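Worked example 4.2. Below are the chains of a multi-component assembly; read each line carefully before continuing.
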Amino acid sequence: NAGVTQTPKFQVLKTGQSMTLQCAQDMNHEYMSWYRQDPGMGLRLIHYSVGAGITDQGEVPNGYNVSRSTTEDFPLRLLSAAPSQTSVYFCASSPQGRVPQHFGDGTRLSIL
Amino acid sequence: GQNIDQPTEMTATEGAIVQINCTYQTSGFNGLFWYQQHAGEAPTFLSYNVLDGLEEKGRFSSFLSRSKGYSYLLLKELQMKDSASYLCAVNGGSTLGRLYFGRGTQLTVWP
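Applying the procedure described above to all two chains together yields the following structure tokens:
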């Protein structure tokens, strides 16, 4: 049972490049979400999904896209990377809303 | 808007008791979570309160007062390994499962 798997663990991009952060869970969880964590800012919600085919914006969605074609996968796309998107990105999942979310190990992203 | 407040830093001595407070103002409430996060690692779940009162789990307890918009995490018999950031998160707003996080309280435990 792998839980929530995020790839890659580290990535360096140049300004303007695009990339996709992968998130997969093998627990058949309906609810998945993406957060970014910056020093002194706590975890901020980027996008979330309550089930396959359903996504919605969180607090800081600008510059990011998501899709949820399957229950297992919830990729996060950076359309045109900017230095302000340098952060640690966490993906999380839970069976439904009232139970704890399980977090992946994070992706550390640097944009030069 | 949603607002979650907790102290930025706290220090304590090994073996002592520490209480980390969290106050919140959200448009809805479906429960409050506490997470622990060691440096460079992912948050891990500690406790969950949805009704008023105290929830105890080993050395860790969490209290909730919904009328006051207040919670605390109580850590007893502190150990060096408890040095970490403690995150308060409210399941609030109109979407069940959507978490609003505080900025975290960095706890340092001294020998």
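Take a moment to check your reading of the output against the notes. Chain A has no helices and eleven strands. The first strand of chain A starts at residue 4 and ends at 7.
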